[in-house]
């Protein structure tokens, strides 16, 4: 629904042991984390294993594989979550392609919803 707003511009940065960028949920309502079937991340065309991805929302960090066990945590509409990818070497300065694909389970819909965005973001020096 809101695919072009998933990856947040100007948010890519290296952090100790990884890379971070901002992302929004591609749905017009908030969803419980247990309703998020997948958060697939690709950096420069290479898929990142789910166990190497976490999302921080309202100061709380959740590993993607553990989100299905979080029935009380919610990713609110418009909220920018910080996606962290474990990557000890980080990314070299310059432009990098960042892609995120969500699969969402909505209780009143008979099928999974998907949303995907891909942007070229820049890591500073």
From TrEMBL:
<protein>
    <recommendedName>
        <fullName>C-deglycosylation enzyme beta subunit</fullName>
    </recommendedName>
</protein>
<feature type="domain" description="C-glycoside deglycosidase beta subunit">
    <location>
        <begin position="2"/>
        <end position="108"/>
    </location>
</feature>
<comment type="similarity">
    <text>Belongs to the C-glycoside deglycosidase beta subunit family.</text>
</comment>
<dbReference type="Pfam" id="PF19906">
    <property type="entry name" value="CGDB"/>
</dbReference>
<keyword id="KW-0119">Carbohydrate metabolism</keyword>
<keyword id="KW-0456">Lyase</keyword>
<dbReference type="InterPro" id="IPR045959">
    <property type="entry name" value="CGDB"/>
</dbReference>
């Amino acid at each position: 629904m809101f695919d072009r707003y998933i990856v947040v511009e100007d948010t890519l940065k290296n952090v100790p042991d990884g890379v971070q960028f901002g992302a929004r949920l591609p749905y017009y309502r908030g969803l419980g984390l247990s309703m998020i079937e997948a958060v697939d991340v690709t950096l420069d065309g290479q898929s990142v294993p789910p166990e190497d991805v976490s999302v921080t929302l309202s100061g709380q960090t959740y590993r993607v594989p553990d989100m299905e066990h979080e029935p009380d945590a919610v990713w609110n509409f418009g909220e920018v979550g910080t996606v962290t990818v474990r990557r000890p070497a980080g990314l070299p300065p310059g432009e990098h392609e960042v892609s995120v694909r969500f699969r969402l389970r909505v209780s009143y819909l008979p099928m999974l919803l998907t949303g995907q965005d891909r942007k070229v973001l820049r890591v500073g020096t």
